[in-house]
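From the pipeline queue, job 12 of 40. The input is one protein chain; the requested action is below.

Action: predict structure.
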Amino acid sequence: MRYLLKLTLLLIITSGFFVKQTVAVDLQAGKEKAEGVCAGCHGKDGVTAILPSYPILAGQHEDYLSQALYDYKTGARKNAVMTGIASTLTKEDIINISAYFATMPSPLHLKIRE
């Protein structure tokens, strides 16, 4: 019985370390950061980039954008410009920017064949 009690207590205490901490999304902060950091290359609307090879960010999936920014930040994804930019972003910045671009109107959509 004592073993079970100790095990339960240990699980309760350590479970806090494995729970993903969530951050409340602040779309206004995401917009402000995106307009200051991303708009120079990807356009203020996230669509009209300065070069056609730059991706459209507006309407992209939030988790895709977050993962891409984290990967640039950690070096898992290689691009000198994006690595430099992503390295300045906090976790909250990445979450807010990703959420902001995901909510924007976009030409990205699935074409349904009839």
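Job complete. The radius of gyration is 19 Å.
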